[in-house]
Structures
1.
Amino acid sequence: MIPYGRQNITDEDIKVVTEVLKSEYLTQGPNIQEFETAFANYVGAKYAVAVANGTAALHLCALALNVSPGDKVITTPITFAASANCIRYCGGEIVFAEIDPLSYLIDIDSVRSLLEGSPKGTYKGIIPVDFAGRAVNLEDFKNLAEEYGLWIIEDACHAPGGFFNDSEGQEQRCGNGKFADLAIFSFHPVKHIACGEGGMVTTNNIELYNKLLTLRTHGIVKSNDLYVNSIELAGGDENYPGWYMEMQTLGYNYRLTDFQAALGTSQLKRADEGLEKRRRIAEKYNSAFSGKSFISGQSGVEAGHAYHLYIIEVDNRLGLYNHLREKKIFAQIHYIPCHLMPYYQSLGWEIGDMPIAEHYYRRCISLPMYPTLTDEEQLFVIQTVNEYYHE
């Protein structure tokens, strides 16, 4: 069986997890901060907060930015539903913008049209998604956001280690906090860094960082400097007693465990190696499929692309999908446009609202892409695709 994605767990990964399982802390221990510090350094951000999964990361970002009922936020329809759902969790309203037909990323011209078509203040924020591993040019989005007073959450779940080149030609790594207020990552098994489940929020904003820390753990604070109640109420005399804590806001249990964090730290050490392997796989696909008449679009090879996915657009996508499965190649489709999900259709979105995204969906297919994909397996995938189209 050749899946579209697969985790790579080494003996060293198993060793570090086993060590934590034998230690005093399974959760809320020292491995959390170690992982956070290492990850913040990796992406170039000042702060990082480890959480239970990417969806929790998105929800915490929306909460930290005070998304409220009725707030309008713009995102892409070509993403996993969580990118949009996080706003709905807070009672906000999602407005979808079109995608660029070549990059598959949210189209900044479509976003600008939405903003220009409404009075200033109508929209609160933008959630660009580094879809498939290709980095959004956040410098351009930051300029647009500042013009309209918007915040930005970068959904970088597909792109740890990915980057774009700014207007001065400098590489800007996904999640570095220079252009987005907050960025989020996922550590699901098919992602670059696998923790089983898990997520991370990065930011350069100390106020948002402190909000995230509180919201991640039930809204509880444990610091003499932050307590609201008196020492007497707390049960102390001259000082607050050691057991005391306060729930000051409505938070959640969105914590990551220590053994997951240890696995993440171990995986992070191989992150750049994995990126290079993904890019080599993409180069082979690109070379094999270049000029093929049955392909109308493909990911191409870009230096800053993190290649979580390798996507092609083809004629008779269903036929190819079934043919691959018959050969035990389990390709996948990324994604059914969010606005066509029954939930979002119930909110008023309809077929035809996003024609470029819908056209892409009818033709897209993600081929196997992961660092342990062997040359023989990739060649078999390529031959099987060509076989279906008689080329």
2.
Amino acid sequence: MKKRFYDNYDYEEAYQKQCEKLEEWELEKLMKDGKVACLYRTTTTKSQNIKSGTTLLEAQVYPSFMNKADMPVTKKKRETRPSQSNLNDKNARRYIIRLANINFGKGDIWATFGWNDDCLPDSVERARKDITNFIKRINRRRKKAGLENAKYIYILAFDGYKRPHFHILISGDGIDRDQLEKLWGKCDRPNTRRIMPDDKFLLTGLATYITQNPHGTKRWCPSKNLKKPPEPKRSYSKFKKSQVERMVKNFDTLKKQLEKAYPGYEFLDAEVKYNGINAAFYIYARMVRN
């Protein structure tokens, strides 16, 4: 009979303590005193930009337990569907970042638009209607120029519903920034810029910025013509438990093992966290291939 493993839990909720705060002897004691029966499962997600071909890889290494009682109890399961209701959900934020890294690049536009007092929307629905009409005007212009509908992701932000605004990533071909601002026409101080992706992290920094939610609520909406992130690949055999325990104790070892496991990819960064109850670890790493 095939052995069953238990890993359907939210590992980012279960593993929050940073390993970098522990001395090596503390890590050794943690692994010795809290030893549980587990192996490590790896989820690999790749986001290849459609313009440059650069691929950003995310690797998540987390424990898969042999006994159900050892699995952490968390509010959510391992992977939940990204919600478009708001951006308090980390899965939605990470999904948007992947969409941005795949679909947008040099020459595209990111912008922030608001509303003047005389045309301030009185509801979320009215604000979204204004944005939808704005995108329709853009697409009519694109159609006249023989272009397909624009790709976009917009994020509507509002705080107590006093001063809503929205961020948008949108195709930059066939339109300049002045035309875009004129087509919106509902605020005196729009902010539009041409996108200049980072050579290694692509649009991660920009997408992280516009998905932050320090106040109020944010809702996001993607166009239907975006290329979607591929399904993650999962493996129980990419990293053995002994490998993981060496990796979490030594950053150089972690880098070396990741680059060996993913040939052709350059290591960018990683975070390592642990759970003091079961003495198991969680690794989130990013790598790039140009």
3.
Amino acid sequence: MTKIDKDLIPVQALLIPKPILYTGKVLNWISPFLASRFGARLFLTPFKYKRPVREKTMAIESRKEKVKIKKINREVIVYNYGNSNKKILLVHGWSGSGTQLSKVADELLYKGFSTVSFDAPAHGEAPGKRSNMPHFIETIHQLEKTHGPFYSAIGHSLGGMSLLRATKFGLMIEKLVIIGTANSVTKITKEFVRNLQLSQKTGRLMKQYLDERYGEDLDNYSGGISAEAVKIPTLVVHDKNDVDVQYTEALEIIKKLIKGKLLLTEKLGHRKILGNQKVIDKIIDFITE
């Protein structure tokens, strides 16, 4: 399969092993209830992958440290890249790692910034098997206290949703950039069960179970809901050919932002957009202007 073909397939569909897909189908046929519990477990399980070559320089040259996030009692790996006091916080997406935004980080270093990023619980080199968005958010809040202050923050996918929520609840930054970020948690769960080839009934049961487990409607974490309370300039970057998160999600988020700016691209998908030089230049211009 060519790289272009892969960009047309949702990352979940690429990473989920076939035996798991088969198990899900069988459970879905036997009992949507059992399938929803199986799906929920997978929904909270990030898939780890070998670090791409393009990220290795950042991984090697960063000062890495294991940090315990007290509120969730989990450990993360923090990457301190560069030595400037002008710091930018980088937050990866689901199944990503702290070096996922390495091309952006390299350009920021050239412009006189340093970056702080992390492997969220159960991601990258961080220990654990399962994670969730509240883990990302609590990590952001603690790192602001211990490794900040941050001038601005950049988040990809779930990282963008987490930063919107964290900013709503007190993250003190001057500018925010979100890339390929979803608006609706319900839509995320629907796409997940579709990629897992489960029924929508199973998806509804899974969302209900997750709401009960975390004690609130997880749609409260949706990008648009958080965006309504974000007062700082925010750049929303999204590709029209993103098959993981439809670009209409960006259109929904931008409507809620008071100082939002939209950058739409084409033929970059959900992942290549992070390494595109034109996109990176626009992000740097936004942060430094």
4.
Amino acid sequence: MASKKIRRRDMIQQVVQERGGVSVGSLAEMLGVSTQTIRRDIDVLCDGNTLRRAHGRIELAEDRLNTPFDQRAGTNLASKRAIAEVAAAQIPDGATLFISIGSTALSVARALRYRKELTIITNNLSAAMALSEEVSNRIILPGGELRLPDRDFIGEEVVDFFGRFRAEFALFGTAGVGEDGRLLEFHESEVRASERMRSNAQCAILVIDHSKFGRLAPAAGAMITDVDQVVCDRRPAAEFDPVIEALGDGLLFAEKTE
């Protein structure tokens, strides 16, 4: 099988795993191919027990779809909790911060549960709810349609939303990191939202577990070296040594090694 076809099908599986389901049209637009090509891919991908077709969409099989989002999408959960504790330790009471979509960002929000008088600007409803238990916090959300089952807001309206604010910190994740250190997302609007948060914050903190290094996604964003600080669970594979070395003191590992 051609490597291009393998990479495309891997991307489809990643999107469905993270989002629970996605339409054929959205996949075709995202990956720059025809809907007929996507349907052929789906024929192959659904020949098993993990994925299923559903009214012009491809979804997780029912037993996996019913798993809560933060458990289903959040692989490496112990590592993400460790990342979250390190990132949250840098946020003082009274800070203003952006929080992006994604399960790692959600883990950081949960780790901030003891902070007070935060101003949180986010398109991640689950993060907002996690921080709403502290009544001294101020939480600002965009309007628009809530994407399910992820419980977040995406699109150009969100890019404009983040552009209206300034923050001391931006906490955000990414879908993948290319071999050259490029941050990758599944949608161009997600790239623009992350870039708007990064440029409008005094300190941008990327929270990412090692599995995202080498993970493919079609929309290219900033370089990882453009971020003020990266918090990762542990060192990724050796082929990323040049990227890791370029980060210098801007990289923190959450898991201690001997």
